[in-house]
Design goal:
Layout: E1 7-12, H1 19-34, E2 38-43, H2 67-76, E3 80-84, H3 85-90, E4 102-105, H4 107-116, E5 119-122
Parallel strand pairs: 1-2, 1-5, 2-3, 3-4
Length: 123
């Protein structure tokens, strides 16, 4: 396994109704951060709800850390969370309800993230 720092991009499409999947994705992304990789999570579609203030507190699964803790740790340790701006607009969500540290962004920025990544992982 390479010791070199890599840029990892995780793409999530699911929200709380698939809690175990979402929590596992954030847990693995946190492991990437702990291994000193550059990690970004991009939220599309229903996954944009994960970044709404108050929503992460509602996402739980057995034998998993709660989403609010996983997201807090991820952001505090240098992870980046991007939210699809057109996805929020189509849901009539104002970006002011996104948690601190989350950035709503466009397809151009997302494409740049993909092109710069060593690995893009769909979760």
């Amino acid at each position: 396994m390479s010791e070199e720092k890599q840029k990892l991009v995780y793409v999530l499409h699911d929200a709380g109704e698939r809690a175990e999947k979402v929590l596992t994705g954030f847990a693995v992304a946190n492991i990437g951060i702990s291994m000193e990789h550059d990690v970004t999570i991009i939220l599309f579609g229903e996954a944009t709800r994960l970044a709404y203030k108050g929503y992460a507190e509602t996402v739980h699964a057995l034998e998993r850390l709660p989403l609010n803790r996983l997201m807090g740790d991820f952001l505090a340790n240098g992870g980046k969370i991007l939210v699809c701006l057109p996805c929020t607009k189509s849901r009539k969500v104002d970006t002011s309800i996104l948690i601190d540290g989350v950035e709503a962004t466009t397809g151009t920025v997302v494409t740049d993230e993909f092109l710069e990544a060593d690995q893009v992982i769909g979760w």
